[in-house]
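Field reference: sequence -> structure
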Amino acid sequence: MLQRTGASIGTALVAVLYTGHLAGTSTPRQAADAFRYANWWLFAGACLLMLPAYLLARAERKARPGRAAIPTAQTA
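Structure field:
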């Protein structure tokens, strides 16, 4: 449920970024600059959200009781 909601909100934000910066462009160069600007914001947001995602995954891994070791080629 949260992934669907987050994806919908993310898609709406991307659309707003693109349309907001594409409004009033008259040349292909200006349109390319608008896309470049929006894509840098998307990249920065993705980088910013990687840290909390990593910390959450690490906390969940530590809290999981009875972790079984994944067999590797050496132990199998």
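Note: The radius of gyration is 20 Å.
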